[in-house]
């Protein structure tokens, strides 16, 4: 196992949250609401347009399919920073539906984040060991619109699809949020919560499913399993 290069020094969790939160946004996709984070940015000097690629869980975006609803993205302070009613957006499902991962490519008038605020990625082949401490951020529906911090440890793995199992929760609305270590390296994307159902009326604490950032990085760089979907494609189902 290769360890992540310490791009930034180790921080207290409150300091890490402050760094990461600059890249985290609320996503409103028709009847769905969730969390996303900026993974890359760009700028077209000829047109003056800025571009941002936002990673989120595909099930957050999916309710837009077959509707004429707009995508709206808000910053942590509640300001609308993007609306597909006024500008261009593209959707990329990555790796097929079982991977529950999507990218949103936005064209904006001003950058969503500064280059210095982008979060570092660990080496492509790195795998976190069981017991590794991580945190994650998202907007739980039960406290909307408050951005909340969660904390846990890597418990295990699933191979198909590639998933980290984490001893922590993924409340509705947190889906698509970023997971990170204390050096604010991106670890993965919150996908789902796997409850421990004893019987129809009894549910015990379960595990969170986290899509590794290495898988997202691979799909982004190789283009495998990715297909761009325009807003009209979504509206046409």
What is the topology, as strand order, of the major beta sheet?
A: 5-4-1-2-3-7-6-14
Biggest beta sheet attributes: 8 strands, antiparallel
In total, the number of strands is 14
Query: Would you identify the CATH H-level superfamily of the largest domain?
Result: Trypsin-like serine proteases
The value of Rg in angstroms is 17 Å
Q: Under the CATH scheme, which architecture of the largest domain would be assigned?
A: Beta Barrel
- Average pLDDT across residues? 86
User: Considering DSSP H and I runs of 4 or more, what fraction of the residues is helical?
Assistant: 10-25%
Order of helices and strands: HEEEHEEEEEEEEEEHEH
Number of domains: 2
Examine the coordinates and then state which fold CATH places here, giving the name of the CATH topology of the largest domain: Thrombin, subunit H
Query: Which stretches are poorly predicted, pLDDT < 50 over at least 5 residues?
Result: 1-6, 224-237
Proportion of strand residues: 35-45%
CATH class of the largest domain: Mainly Beta
The CA-CA distance between the termini, in Å, is 42 Å
Supply the number of helical segments.
4
Q: What structural class is derived from the secondary structure elements?
A: mainly beta
The rough form would be described as globular
């Amino acid at each position: 196992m290769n360890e992540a290069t310490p791009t930034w020094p180790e921080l207290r969790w409150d300091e890490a949250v402050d760094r990461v939160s600059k890249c985290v946004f609320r996503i409103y996709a028709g009847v769905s609401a969730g969390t996303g984070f900026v993974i890359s940015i760009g700028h077209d000097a000829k047109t003056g347009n800025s571009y941002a690629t936002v990673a989120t869980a595909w099930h957050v975006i999916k309710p837009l399919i077959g509707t004429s609803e707009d995508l709206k993205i808000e910053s942590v302070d509640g300001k609308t920073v993007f609306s597909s009613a006024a500008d261009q957006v593209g959707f990329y499902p990555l790796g097929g539906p079982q991977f529950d991962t999507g990218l949103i490519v936005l064209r904006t008038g001003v950058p969503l984040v500064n280059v210095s605020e982008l979060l570092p990625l660990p080496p492509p082949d790195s795998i976190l060991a069981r017991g590794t401490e991580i945190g994650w951020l998202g907007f739980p529906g039960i406290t909307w619109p408050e951005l909340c911090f969660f904390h846990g440890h890597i418990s295990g793995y699933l191979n198909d699809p590639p998933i980290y199992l984490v001893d922590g929760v993924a409340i509705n609305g947190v889906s698509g949020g970023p997971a990170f270590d204390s050096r604010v390296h991106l670890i993965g994307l919150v996908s789902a919560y796997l409850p421990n159902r004893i019987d129809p009326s009894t549910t015990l604490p379960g595990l969170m499913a986290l899509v590794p950032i290495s898988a997202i990085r691979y799909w982004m760089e190789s283009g495998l399993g990715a297909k761009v979907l325009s807003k009209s494609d979504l509206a046409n189902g």
